[in-house]
Design goal:
By secondary structure, the chain is an alpha+beta fold. The chain folds into two domains: about 80 residues, Glutaredoxin, CATH 3.40.30; about 140 residues, Glutathione S-transferase Yfyf (Class Pi), Chain A, domain 2 (Up-down Bundle), CATH 1.20.1050.10. Helices cover about 55% and strands about 5% of the residues. The chain has a four-stranded mixed sheet with strand order 2-1-3-4, with helices on one face. Helix 1 runs parallel beside helix 3, helix 1 crosses helix 8 and helix 7 crosses helix 9. The structure holds glutathione.
């Protein structure tokens, strides 16, 4: 049995759900609600000592980190391959996965925090935050996190997200136009899977105009979001974070 510890509206979790759905693998979920800090409860820290989702469990063994999980799934269940066979195309695929980790993931965080997450996390009292964050695996971050949750939404941080996302999408436009139709070339791969959850989040943040003048990205978004697996893996409405506020 494949078990996934995940939060429906976390995009690292979406990345793994999409890989599972593309491969047609049945899985059982354990929902770890990040908006209630369930990732920092001792029960989950025993599963993932970093206190991050997702974590995969298979045959009694745990695998953390979304990109590592997806490669593991592709090794363990090779029937529907999601990595190109050609070594150069495979290297390009990994470079696009790194682009997601280093650029897209980092770019989107300030907007998600300020426009969506603060609506929930800002409601906790100082005492509640002290209790919920008490076992944080990176204790040096606690003071900063508390300050971040409590501060009013910051338009400059949202603007930073918008600029960084625009740069990341421009890079994708160039890559797709030169060697598409998928990020690693001819075949749909873990590279497309890594970037897919960003599309959902950008739409939810009301920033889809970022790719309106990028024809190759626009076409990639259309093909990607039409895939049945994308719809199955996307966050369920009842588990979504609140709609983004407008600043
Ligand atoms: N590199 C990790 C990142 C995991 C990560 O940061 N997960 C977020 C949700 S997308 C999380 O658990 N955040 C909770 C926290 O930072 O306390 C991966 O790809 O799995």
């Amino acid at each position: 049995m494949i078990e996934l510890y995940h939060f429906w509206d976390s995009f690292c979790s979406f990345k793994v759900r999409l890989c599972l759905e593309e491969k047609g693998l049945a899985w059982t979920g354990h929902h770890v609600d990040l908006m209630k800090f369930e990732n920092l409860a001792s029960a989950y820290l025993a599963v993932n000592p970093r206190g991050l989702v997702p974590t995969l469990k298979l045959e009694g063994r745990l695998v953390p980190e979304s990109s590592i999980i997806n490669e593991f799934l592709d090794d363990r269940f090779p029937e529907v391959p999601l990595r190109p066979a050609d070594p150069y195309a495979r290297a390009r695929m990994r470079d696009w996965v790194k682009h997601e980790e280093d650029e897209l993931f980092v770019a989107i965080r300030p907007a998600s925090l300020n426009l969506m997450m603060k609506q929930v996390l800002g409601r906790f009292s100082e005492a509640e935050l002290d209790r919920l964050l008490a076992h944080h695996p990176r204790p040096h971050q606690i003071a900063l996190l508390k300050k971040m949750f409590k501060e009013p939404p910051d338009p400059a941080a949202v603007e930073r997200s918008r600029k960084a996302l625009a740069a990341a999408f421009a890079k994708m436009e160039k890559g797709l136009a030169e060697a598409g139709p998928w990020l690693a070339g001819a075949s749909f791969s873990l590279a497309d899977i890594a970037a897919a959850p960003v599309i959902d989040r950008v739409e939810r943040l009301g920033m889809a105009a970022l790719w309106s003048s990028l024809p190759a990205v626009k076409d990639w978004v259309r093909r990607l979001t039409a895939r049945p697996a994308y719809r199955k893996a996307a966050p369920k409405d009842e588990f979504r974070m609140p709609a983004a506020i407008r600043l």
